[in-house]
Q: What sequence folds into this?
């Protein structure tokens, strides 16, 4: 479904992503983990086309997507949420979600788009909230709107950058179930997450980044028991 081949991204003197390669299989929930600043969000930005690669190639369904504009990548079936939400200011939650389908590869219009948006809002836990001002929603609820906006485009690949971060214990369990149900419908998911319990329960395989490089990859349970991976996380925790 997705193949990242020797990808690097340089910001001036900083190499945020350094010769990274991995592949994601169809229908997989794939974990992308690593301490703060290790290059995870940059990698998501490279896949979605928000950033251009400095070198290396990214293939989606065997077609080269690195170098394409974000809209072209979205139209091929890649949707995303943002680590820091990017609300569409001035629109209601329902209108924000409709924007995800009106501009998608299978567009709906008018009443159809509105009905689909209400269905998606219900699915992410915002039933009946579609016409409140977006600014009156909590940060977490704005993240729900963003997920609905991504889902309504019926993506084949969904990129979730710390979507579960900040949920309380009950919401977290609901959030994990929601991601499982999205996966069960056949959507392939790349999940950036710091919550190890979520990674363990959702991801069959994962890749671990540290300072831009891949330090481990493979089956989640075995990857998370590698001493270098544990060190990378403990090093990060002791920095805080
Ligand atoms: N647009 C940019 N311009 C310059 N430097 C950037 C830019 N985006 C990211 N970086 C730098 O690249 C490195 C990797 O950042 P990135 O946001 O990808 O990390 P991350 O793994 O997502 O971290 P976190 O877990 O804190 O979200 C950091 O040193 C960051 O400061
Ligand atoms: Mg990040």
A:
């Amino acid at each position: 479904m997705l193949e990242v081949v020797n990808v690097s991204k340089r910001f001036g003197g900083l190499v945020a992503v350094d010769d990274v390669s991995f592949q994601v299989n169809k229908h997989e929930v794939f974990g992308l983990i690593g301490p703060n600043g290790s290059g995870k969000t940059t990698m998501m930005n490279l896949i979605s086309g928000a950033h251009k690669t400095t070198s290396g190639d990214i293939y989606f369904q065997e077609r080269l997507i690195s170098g394409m504009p974000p809209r072209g990548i979205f139209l091929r079936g890649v949707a995303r949420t943002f680590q820091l939400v990017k609300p569409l200011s001035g629109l209601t939650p329902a209108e924000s979600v409709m924007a995800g389908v009106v501009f998608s590869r299978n567009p709906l219009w008018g009443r159809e788009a509105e009905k689909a948006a209400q269905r998606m809002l219900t699915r992410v836990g915002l039933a009946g909230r579609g016409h409140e001002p977006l600014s009156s929603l909590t940060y977490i609820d704005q993240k729900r709107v963003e997920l609905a906006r991504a889902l309504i485009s019926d993506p084949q690949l969904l990129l979730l950058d710390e979507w579960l971060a900040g949920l309380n214990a009950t919401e977290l369990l609901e959030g994990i179930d929601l991601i499982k149900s999205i996966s069960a419908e056949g959507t392939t998911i790349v999940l950036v997450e710091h919550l190890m319990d979520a990674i363990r329960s959702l991801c069959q395989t994962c890749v671990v980044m540290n300072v831009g490089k891949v330090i481990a990859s493979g089956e989640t349970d075995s990857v998370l028991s590698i001493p270098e991976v544990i060190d990378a996380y403990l090093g990060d925790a002791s920095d805080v």
Summary: Strands lie at 2-11, 14-24, 29-33, 55-60, 63-64, 78-80, 157-161, 188-192, 205-210, 213-219. The longest strand covers residues 14-24. The chain has a mean pLDDT of 94.
